[in-house]
Amino acid sequence: MYSIIIPVFNEAAMLHELLKKLNQFYIEGHEIIIIDDGSTDNSQTILSKYHNYNVLFNKSNLGKGSSIIKGLKCANFEKII
After folding, report:
1. Most distant CA pair in the chain: distance in Å?
2. Partners of 6 in the β-ladder
3. What 3-state class would DSSP assign to 25?
4. Does 52 or 16 have the greater pLDDT score?
5. What is the mean pLDDT of residues 68-76?
6. What average pLDDT does the segment 48-74 reach?
7. pLDDT at 20
8. Is the distance from CB of 80 to CB of 7 less than 8 angstroms?
9. Angle at Cα 43 formed by Cα 6 and Cα 31, nearest 5°?
């Protein structure tokens, strides 16, 4: 089992397609953690429609590194992608 961590910032244009593809490959028992790092576009609205994932929201933009660290703290599995 593994955790996949995906940081997101203002990526609404490609986010729906990414989530659609992830849904095709989602395997029960693995987790996908998506961290929205304070997006100001439509990213949060798009993410709110996907319930297969652990979606976290940062209130301010702290950078991808901070988002990855937050995802690591929330990950439930030792193998992380």
Report:
1. 33
2. 34
3. helix
4. 16
5. 88
6. 81
7. 81
8. no
9. 30
- Structural contact between residues 50 and 19, judged by C-beta atoms closer than 8 angstroms: yes
d(CA 65, CA 71): 10
The token pair that represents 79 in the structure block: 């193998």
Give the mean model confidence (pLDDT) for residues 51-74: 81
Q: Are 21 and 52 in contact (CB under 8 A)?
A: no
Tell me what pLDDT residue 26 has. 66
Residue 9 pLDDT level (bands cut at 50, 70, 90): very high
Q: What angle do CA 5, 9, 12 make, to 5 degrees?
A: 100
- DSSP symbol at 59: S
Residue 10 to residue 24: CA distance in whole angstroms: 23
